[in-house]
């Protein structure tokens, strides 16, 4: 699968999971899939951090994957979050996702139990060997408490169906190390760092802000790929203001769900321990969306 390193290039959107009275809102979830098909989003990433996977039961996790795959119906790629800090659980979820019809699986680094680098390597190796679908490594030490070092990611690049890494360390040095030493696709895991990462050779982004402005994120990527750096920078700075004022208000996905509520695309419901934005933050958010031209 080495030739599939560009499989998830472009705009992947880290989808929210809509709730209604504490339960998954299947109708709203299907509507979100259709919205992204219409907007030209390249890939959907359900049940990741933005999809509140930590508070979904395994049955609900599988339910979301199944709904998204059925609604996508081949019209848009699906890269489902199936990671866990238990290798057995990650394999179980990934096998289910393969049967459900995903195009690939996104695997967050094992969190809380802080494996050694050899532990990270064996974890991803075991998952990759258990399925036939492309695997994307997700490295976000700010949430998992430990970095997958570049040397480990470079080792993992030799495994045929490990095709990409979602790079959320915030370190351009780490990204440069990976890009200079292997042919894994590197995807930005931070909206505000997408353009800098593309300049190093990154292939795209797994975007949170793409939940509300997928067309604008695509415009930035398209401008860069067309060699129009001035236009790409223009889009970057426009999006940067939105990201800074929106995503910085509280832990993801609280602000993006609140934004979608203000835009009439979600009811804003989150599961504990996530809580609603306070009234002051909602005012800041409303002003941010108005200044951007969304309200």
List the helices and strands and how they pair.
Layout lengths: L9 E5 L4 E2 L2 E2 L1 H14 L3 E3 L12 H15 L4 E5 L5 H14 L3 E5 L8 H14 L4 E5 L1 H4 L5 H7 L5 E6 L4 H10 L3 E4 L5 H7 L3 E4 L6 H12 L3 H19 L6 H9 L16 H14 L3
Parallel strand pairs: 1-4, 1-10, 4-5, 5-6, 6-7, 7-8, 8-9, 9-10
Antiparallel strand pairs: 2-3
Helix pairs in contact: 1-2, 2-3, 3-4, 4-6, 6-7, 9-10, 10-12, 11-12
Strand order of the largest sheet: 1-4-5-6-7-8-9-10
Class, according to the CATH hierarchy? Alpha Beta
**C-alpha Rg, in Å?**
18 Å
Uncertain stretches of 5 or more adjacent residues? none
Provide the domain count: 1
Distance between the termini: 44 Å
- Count of distinct strands: 10
The dominant shape is globular
Largest sheet: 8 strands, parallel, barrel
Short synopsis of the structure:
This is 4-hydroxy-tetrahydrodipicolinate synthase. Helix content is 47%, strand content 14%.
Can you tag this structure with a few keywords?
single chain, alpha/beta, 8-stranded parallel barrel, 12 helices, 14% strand, 4-hydroxy-tetrahydrodipicolinate synthase, DapA-like, lysine biosynthesis
Characterise this structure:
- There is one protein chain.
- The protein is an alpha/beta fold and 295 residues long.
- The chain has a single domain, classed as Alpha-Beta Barrel (TIM Barrel).
- The protein contains twelve helices and ten strands.
- The chain has helices spanning 26-39, 58-72, 87-100, 117-130, 141-144, 150-156, 172-181, 194-200, 214-225, 229-247, 254-262, 279-292, and strands spanning 10-14, 19-20, 23-24, 43-45, 77-81, 104-108, 135-139, 162-167, 185-188, 204-207.
- The strands form two sheets. Strands 1-4-5-6-7-8-9-10 form an eight-stranded parallel barrel, surrounded by six helices. Strands 2-3 form a two-stranded antiparallel ribbon.
- Strand 5 (77-81), helix 3 and strand 6 (104-108) form a beta-alpha-beta unit.
- The longest helix is centred in the C-terminal third of the chain and has 19 residues, at 229-247.
- It is globular.
- The mean pLDDT is 97.
- Catalyzes the condensation of (S)-aspartate-beta-semialdehyde [(S)-ASA] and pyruvate to 4-hydroxy-tetrahydrodipicolinate (HTPA).
- The active site is at residues 138, 166.
- This is 4-hydroxy-tetrahydrodipicolinate synthase.
- Its EC number is 4.3.3.7.
- Pyruvate binds at residues 50, 206.
């Amino acid at each position: 699968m080495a030739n599939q390193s560009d499989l998830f290039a472009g705009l992947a959107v880290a989808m929210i999971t809509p709730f209604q009275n504490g339960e998954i809102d299947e109708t709203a979830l299907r509507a979100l899939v259709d919205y992204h098909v219409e907007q030209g989003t390249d890939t959907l990433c359900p049940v990741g951090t933005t999809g509140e996977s930590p508070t979904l039961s395994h049955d609900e996790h599988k339910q979301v994957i199944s709904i998204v795959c059925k609604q996508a119906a081949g019209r848009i790629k699906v890269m489902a979050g199936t990671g866990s800090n238990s290798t057995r659980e990650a394999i179980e979820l990934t096998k289910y996702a393969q049967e459900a019809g995903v195009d690939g699986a996104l695997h967050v680094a094992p969190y809380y139990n802080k494996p050694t680098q050899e532990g990270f390597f064996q974890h991803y190796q075991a998952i990759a060997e258990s399925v036939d679908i492309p695997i994307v490594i997700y490295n976000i030490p700010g949430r998992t408490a430990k970095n997958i070092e570049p040397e480990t990611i470079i080792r993992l690049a030799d495994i045929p169906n490990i095709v990409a890494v979602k790079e959320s360390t915030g370190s351009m040095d780490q990204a440069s190390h990976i890009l200079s030493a292997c042919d894994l696709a590197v995807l930005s895991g931070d909206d505000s760092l997408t353009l800098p990462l593309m300049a190093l050779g990154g292939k795209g982004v797994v975007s949170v802000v793409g939940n509300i402005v997928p067309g604008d994120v695509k415009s930035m990527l398209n401008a860069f790929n067309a060699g129009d750096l001035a236009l790409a920078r223009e889009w970057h700075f426009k999006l940067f203001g939105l990201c800074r004022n929106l995503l910085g208000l509280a832990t993801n996905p609280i602000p993006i769900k609140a934004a979608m509520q203000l835009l009439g695309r979600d009811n804003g419901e989150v599961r504990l321990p996530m809580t609603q934005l306070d009234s002051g933050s909602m005012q800041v958010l409303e002003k941010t969306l108005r200044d951007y031209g969304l309200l």
